[in-house]
Please model this.
Amino acid sequence: MPEIRQPTVAIVEDDEILAFMLDETCKSAGCRVIGRVGNARDALRLLHNASPDFLILDFALDGKQDGLNVLEAVKETSPEMFTILVTGWDLNDIAGRIDGIQPDQILRKPVMPHVLIDLIEKSFAAKQDRRDQEEGLIGVR
Model:
């Protein structure tokens, strides 16, 4: 029988209220939040020490680096990590900046909890199915 595993999430958001809401939403979806940080430097440090299933990442962060710097580093070192970019910006305004380092999903702020939960559940189930297939656990009769 396949191992049932709790999805892990890292949250990078400089707005404390939104970060708290994302944290609580992820926990209600059955996730274990491995860290919640508010800037790119702390995010890179967190992701150097852990490799969560999901990264929820704000596009515009305080400091010299923004969410795209973190996204680019993650796509190079952990391409299997499912990345969710959250932004209050108009998607047409950021399209040129994210070209070439596409996140797996972009969500507009305010993030609706049911949308995030649905995305996490479906994405994690698909990831588990792929892993099970790779291990030969599905399709064996």
